[in-house]
Amino acid sequence: MGDYSVTVLPGDGVGPEVTEQALEVLLTVADLYRHKLTIHHRLAGLASIAAEGVAISEATMQTCAESDAILFGAIGSLPAHERRNATVKPEQALFRLRKDFQFFANLRPIRPSRSLYSASPLKPSYLEGTDLIFVRELSAGLYYGHLESVPGKPSEIRRTERGEEAIDTLLYTEQEIERVVRAAFDIAVARRRLVTSVDKANVLSSSILWRRIVERVAVDYPAVTYEHILVDACAMYLVRDPSRFDVIVTENLFGDILTDQASMLTGSIGMIPSASLGVRRSQAGTFGLFEPIHGSAPDIEGQDKANPVAAILSAAMLLRHSLGLHEEALAVEAAVEEVIQDGYRTVDIQEEGAKVVGTREMGKRITAALR
Amino acid sequence: MGDYSVTVLPGDGVGPEVTEQALEVLLTVADLYRHKLTIHHRLAGLASIAAEGVAISEATMQTCAESDAILFGAIGSLPAHERRNATVKPEQALFRLRKDFQFFANLRPIRPSRSLYSASPLKPSYLEGTDLIFVRELSAGLYYGHLESVPGKPSEIRRTERGEEAIDTLLYTEQEIERVVRAAFDIAVARRRLVTSVDKANVLSSSILWRRIVERVAVDYPAVTYEHILVDACAMYLVRDPSRFDVIVTENLFGDILTDQASMLTGSIGMIPSASLGVRRSQAGTFGLFEPIHGSAPDIEGQDKANPVAAILSAAMLLRHSLGLHEEALAVEAAVEEVIQDGYRTVDIQEEGAKVVGTREMGKRITAALR
Ligand SMILES: CC(C)[C@H](C(=O)O)[C@@H](O)C(=O)O
Ligand SMILES: CC(C)[C@H](C(=O)O)[C@@H](O)C(=O)O
């Protein structure tokens, strides 16, 4: 009944393969629930550099801006020998999208399926009850040069009398911290109402400010319990006692490291979707970018081996957050769980007695389970 | 037969409890192998702030400088409400020691004992064959303000028209990277000859310089294989496939996070020792600081519950690296393994059928096993 538009940026490596399956799921949902869905296919990353000389073009940015949501695949890397002097890098597509659209809250849910406990490196007793979501700050920190804030170029390699040196700056403003912390508390209200804020306040000024702002925001959420933990301790607890967490909020680079680590609880990074959300409203939700947290995995590119689940669950998050289609999102998640319970596995979550299938068959089975 | 001196800084929380056991081991070794060992007890951290108003005094720094090695316990934190405006913080003791003595290479070995597989959150098949060592850069990076390098104060919270903002700077010079990378390759030569360098070269300038220098140093070690991996991928592999690693070299904060995470493979952070080494030679080795990687654990302070193994294994590293006493170091490590195999456990590595003992009894049994 709705009329929506989505820009699809499959990107590089296995990106196009998994995105194809996620798109198939979206189109099936549109068909089943009678929504009109307009899809714009565009390039990003290495694919875009090859075709247009830039990691993402102005025209593509414009198309994204006019859509309700962006479905993203994965971004490739330049080969090592080309990296050094390259001025155009594929990652710039992601950074540009995140920064220009102010996608400050990156949601990454970790909920190991019981049917996959045997594929996880962790013992089942350590997984039991784990259901957490990361809210990773995505628009600031070490990822972005703050040319306007620091005299001189803030992120660079420069030559001094004693040789080369390199500098990156980690800058956070009050507003940048407050908006993501608020997003985390908002999410916690609808969950188990525990926020864990992760920082390195015994070392970093930015973490001291971070803590202060968490304290201030928390006052507005009397029903939510919160705690501060250090990033090193968090990395430990994510292995020893992951079920203690509900909502984890942290800065950009800490979030990058901890979410990849935590993905292993589910058995594979190929299981974890993400939503990057900002302030802009779409028709019935928040304009956002949705992508699996895995990379372009060039080693298995074109081999029909990649796990499409992360991309498909990202499509579910797109339905929920940007299109406001909650029932449809739940239906997709249920279809994934059903196929997993039926014993179908891509190689990354392979186990004894499982039926190992390729990217396409896994996708097809999930689409079929929707009908 | 040797004549050595060690400065002991027990620090805060459980620091004194575990250090007492480690010291007992050192004294027993000295007795058994007929070395003369002079011990200087000094304060650091909260204990020093309370007594002398500083995290570590000049006199204590001097005593350290005149010793062959420093045996360190753990550093406490100020309570939250005192942190905000405090100018003296206990962590400064550690930063000062690391910076002034240029302890740039922090060695943290991770080798899960087979007798402790059942105490680990990981399934035994994932632990099998794991024997890795981190070489964490310890004297630079985000931990240190580079007042001389960046115009303006590089790590601070400041007020702007739009509210507060905080900035930290991540700076590495060529020399700082080269010396720690060289240390890692040197260590790899005597092991399985694989160096994994961990960075975030798709985002950070400092990581791009880091990679370049690894390439350059590697030329001098044709027998050593090396690889670059991203820090997020490393956090993943440390859960999924830890036995793939031999020597992991990385910058300060990445090392902080990854080593705490990896400690969980052994079942407890209370099992992991460390050596912080610089350029200064001691009588028969390298002047260094030796400490468990765990913190001061104020929640169990004074309860005879802390695991003294990390501190005792740190004493073994002290014997090996600063005093050049290799046989003695091996004897201590064997004594620890024997007591573990005999089924004695502190609460952190407690398991069914184990004999749970306190800090003191664990220490006594290890000392006894030495004789
Ligand atoms: C591709 C890379 C720049 C990116 C990041 O570090 O943010 C990725 O690891 C992620 O987590 O989305
Ligand atoms: C106490 C703290 C400042 C310290 C660090 O971050 O280096 C600790 O976590 C460590 O790993 O030795």
Automatic annotation (TrEMBL), chains A, B:
Pfam families: Iso_dh. Its main location: cytoplasm. One of its GO terms (cellular component) is cytosol. NAD(+) binds at residues 295-307. SMART domains: Iso_dh (SM01329). It comes from the Bacteria. Its EC number is 1.1.1.85. It is found in: Cytoplasm. The record marks 143, 200 as: Important for catalysis. The keyword Oxidoreductase applies. Substrate binds at residues 98, 108, 136, 232. Its cofactor is Mg(2+); Mn(2+). Belongs to the isocitrate and isopropylmalate dehydrogenases family. LeuB type 1 subfamily. Homodimer. This is 3-isopropylmalate dehydrogenase. It comes from Micromonospora olivasterospora. The gene is leuB.
